[in-house]
């Protein structure tokens, strides 16, 4: 019996020793993996064979990968914020400088009344430009962050398009530009009239701005199986091929348009709006031959009193 007890005692000691050794080994492995995570080094799992430790190493590796993705995302957001602030400062600098300059000129006691009226009109224009830039920036940022939520529905395309044309008609008339809208049957498309109207206004504003006096702007509507295509064509300066993908980026201004007033927000904002409406936009252009912007909106049908979209 004494021999059996001795053997059992020895076995217990061996198990305890193995357990202590195994726990120390696990502690060392965990300690090493934590150091690798903290130092930003890859978690070494290739030499780990034991089941529990191997599973722990796999989870640690996934945690590290998730942390790295979060860090990369935070860095990207930081760069985006820096870029946004820099671009906003650049956009606001010109109208603010203009306002300050005209204010100083208006302070002159011997300024003729006619000049005073001119400077006041210039201040009004700069104030309106500043207001438009700020509103566009706020819309852009809120759309990017998902703070603005709107549900598109089935609405009349003709009403939305007509409202946009009426908004810019006076500017086109002032430049002696002819707006030609080809007749089309009204239809319901998936849109939010206010936001879609802003897309059309941005495109028509650009057409007026970049077309020489006496030019033309053509509006066409083409029905397709799933989408309705709305084309806005001008006879303006056109866009080089290498810039046609760049113009939809935030704050981008083409080289030929740098001397003209603009912010580089309109097309980017329009693209964001169309994405919310499950639509899209393309451009076809050549320098000196004008540009054609095509907006594609989903068709909607009325079925048994209900509205549906493909």
UniProtKB/TrEMBL annotation:
InterPro entries: BphY/WalK/GraS-like (IPR050351), HATPase_C_sf (IPR036890), HATPase_dom (IPR003594), His_kinase_dom (IPR005467), HisK_dim/P_dom (IPR003661), HisK_dim/P_sf (IPR036097), Sig_transdc_His_kin-like_C (IPR004358)
PROSITE patterns per UniProt: HIS_KIN
Keyword Oxidoreductase: no
Record's GO cellular component terms: plasma membrane
Topology with respect to the bilayer: Multi-pass membrane protein
Species name: Candidatus Blautia merdavium
Domain named Histidine kinase: residues: 87-301
Class in the EC hierarchy, top level: transferase
Coiled-coil features, chain-numbered ranges: 64-91
Catalytic activity: ATP + protein L-histidine = ADP + protein N-phospho-L-histidine
Assigned EC number: 2.7.13.3
GO annotation terms (biological process): cellular response to phosphate starvation
Protein name per Swiss-Prot or TrEMBL: histidine kinase
Keywords, ordered alphabetically: Cell membrane, Coiled coil, Kinase, Membrane, Phosphoprotein, Transferase, Transmembrane, Transmembrane helix, Two-component regulatory system
Record-linked Pfam families: HATPase_c, HisKA
Subcellular location: Cell membrane
GO molecular function, one term: phosphoprotein phosphatase activity
